[in-house]
Specification:
Helix content is about 20%, strand content about 20%. By secondary structure, it is α+β, with helices and mostly antiparallel strands. InterPro entries: DUF2272.
Length: about 450
Amino acid sequence: MRPSPPDLPAFAVPKFAVPTFALLAIILVTALPAASTWAQVAGSSRVIPNFPRPAGSPDPALRVEYSNGSESPPMMVRTAPGRLEPLYRRSPDGGYTPARASGYRIAMTSCPSMPSVSGDPRTRMIDLAAAEWAYFGLPVLDLSVEPAAIVPRLAQPGEVIDIIAPRSNASIGDRVLRQAPRLGMMEDDGPVRATIAGYWAATGSEEAMRVQSIVNYGWHEAGWAMPWSAAFISWLACESGWSPQQFHRSGGHYDYVLAAVRARDGSDPAYAYVAYDLAETVPAAGDLLCTARGSSTFSTIADVRNMSSDSLALHCDLVVKTDPKQRRLYGIGGNVNHAVTLTIVATDAEGRPLTDRDIVGANRWFAVLKPRQGGTAAHDLNGTPAVQSLYRNYARYATGTRAPPPLPLPPATSARPKDEPVPVPPKSKNKAKAKSGTTASEK
């Protein structure tokens, strides 16, 4: 049963702190069930609103098919590099039969899945990312405001006492969350399992699905065992119209970032993206912003070129909007808090993201991948069909309930001012540095 719409909440939010689309996200998930679908998690009282993709948007779930029971292939385990062997189980007659587990398999490999796709792939990636963000329920992770752990810390003269161990503080380790995140559906929610499998299908590999079938065999309805953020970026590239020669689709960010570094070096003139160090340029809508993750130590694109890190773990978000005047940047990425999430990033006055060298707990941003074609996206997040639809739906809701009308969306303009140079001259290192914390964008 669909719950009745709650009363529209009152908000006291500083105008400079929350852009129109972010405020719409907060309002819509609490006040607009008529414009959304509702996901009810089995065995739980949690009710999560999510929003249909705009008409004409591809559905990642159509890229996979679900095999159940005897229809499933035998479970395979890796026994050596490049070697897989089937698992067996004892049958009632004392013999052994292949163990089979339900799971997803690739059903569609075409990129894009809709042949009529045309226009600027960079703008289409922004449109697709916004649609998936809405489908996941508009989760937001604000890393831009003053540091505050989910469980507050106790301040004493000259020191700070952790009330609970940092590693137990919402599983964030030493990282400091700026603000409690607004959560949507997560990877273990039924309505998005096939969606994430569809992201994986765009990489052309069933490895993650094979591993997941084994996990689900012992733990039903578990979240995805393998990080899927690179698969999400690969799906965006696939559906936006980039060919395999223009974008290296992969389950690991390192592969397509390395390809962009080689394009910068001139060894791959057909590649769609060119890599820059963060000090060389300012991110714009349609760029990919990348950070080191986990135990990796990448800090420049030269490190990627030379593989000078024991771990190759990276994470990249698609930049969907920048606001240098308010010192904010907005990126959408996969597997951020187990979902497709909008992250709000603090920047300097030029629009360059602040890193863990500047503020405690920030991501270790170091690279920007820019489309080789130059120019700007036709619009940023505000102009996407998903946000425009959310705005119209809320305007109708407000009219029918005599609620305050929404703030007007900015006019649809290009994503970057025409007179803004790209790239800008390198910026000198900040003199004031805060103690850095461990950062992991995923999970």
